[in-house]
Amino acid sequence: MAVIQERTKSDGKTSYRVLVRIKGYPAQSATFKRITDAKSWAVQTEADIRQGRHFRTYEAKKHTLEDAIKRYNETYVDSLKTSKDRKRQLGWWNKQIGKHTLAEVTPALITQKRDELSKGNRSASTVNRYLAALSHLFTVIAKEWQWVEANPMNQVSKLKEPRGRVRFLDKDERERLLEACKSSKNSDLYLAVRLALATGARRSEIWNLEWSQIDFDRETIILHETKNNDRRKLHISGEVYEMLLEKSKIRRLDTNRLFPGKLDPTKPFDFTQPWRTALKQAKIEDFKWHDLRHTTASYLAMNGATPGEIAGALGHRTLQMVKRYSHLSEDHISSVLQSMNQKVFGG
Question: Which residues pair with 233 in a beta bridge?
Answer without folding.
Answer: 222
